[in-house]
Amino acid sequence: MSLIQYWWLLPVGVLVGAFGTLIGAGGGFILAPLLLLLYPNESPETITCISLAVVFFNAASGSIAYARMGRIDYRSGLVFSSVTVPGAALGALTTGLIPRQQFNLLFGLLMAVMALFVLWRPNPEKTHPAGRPKGRAQRTLTEADGTVHQWTYNSGLGISISAVVGYLSSLLGTGGGIIHVPAMIRFLNFPVHVATATSHFILAIMALTGTLVHIGSGAFHHGIRRTIVLAAGVLIGAQVGALLSNRVKGDWIVRLLAVALALAAMRILAMAW
Fold first, then answer.
1. What letters, b where the CB count within 10 A reaches 16 and e where it falls short, cover 262-272?
2. I need a surface site. Which of 7, 225, 241, 269 has the fewest CB within 10 A?
């Protein structure tokens, strides 16, 4: 089939890119369930290949936009990426071992748990005061508009969470932001807008790793045309989502994240049963 026959995936990519970038999740948690619905006969491996490759383009585009805004914590992002990359490689290699029905069930349960997790978080804009207790990293970041953020987080916990995120995100094709963003906000005290931007930076590195492993293993032999069309859409949508983030408060970003997780969980669990 030619690229023209997949033209309808272009606006899908734009919407996925815009919303995924707005909440810092990369869009994979929307795209992967959508692909499961649109292509019920495709293997989990093909679905994750397409989704993960598209997440990379989305995250790369969104990261460029967020970098201009000065919202990315590069130091933390590089530390977290160093442990997500091995996990992403392992997840990409084990995707093909999971039958489709079990894959749907695992995916749906993960989405449901994360929806509850996000809603449980009260007052998402609250951060811990400056200071550096033992075992905690202290961070200060000034955005391009002059907004200053100060927070501290448990370094060991951040690294542990990132390792798990790397594996699960590549295994499920979600890109990991849907897990990493709420974890960074709830457990690591990141300001919401910094968490979404830094998550995108990590996603770009992690999704690229998973995609390259899929290509190297020979798994990425289906869905290339669909990937190209979707990628074109998310490149546009990511820029839109980053601009919208300037107009949306942190607590609303968290609520949108929870709603999206819950809807995805209900639909995928219905398919699994």
1. bebbebbbebb
2. 7
pLDDT tens by residue, 172-184: 666 677 778 888 9
DSSP class of residue 96?
A: G
What is the helix (H) or strand (E) element at residue 150, kind and residue range?
strand 148-154
**Cα end-to-end span (Å), the chain:** 32
Q: Specify the DSSP class assigned to residue 129.
A: P
- Contact by Cβ (8 Å): 55, 237: no
Alpha-carbon distance of 59 to 36, in angstroms, equals 21
- Contact 48/171 with Cβ under 8 angstroms? yes
Tokens linked to 91: 């997840």
The residue ranges of every structural domain in the chain are 3-272
Tell me how far the alpha carbon of residue 15 is from its chain's centroid: 15
Q: From CA 247, how far away is CA 234, in angstroms rounded? A: 20
User: Per-residue pLDDT tens for 176-217?
Assistant: 777 788 889 888 999 989 998 999 899 898 888 878 887 887
Contact yes or no for 79/158 (Cβ under 8 A): yes
Cβ-based neighbours of 32, under 8 Å, separated by 6 or more: 47, 48, 51, 107, 172, 173, 174
Q: Which residues pair with 137 in a beta bridge?
A: 153
| Residue the block writes with tokens 């996000």 | 118
Question: What 3-state class would DSSP assign to 154?
Answer: strand
pTM for this entry: 0.79
Element (H, E) at 128: none
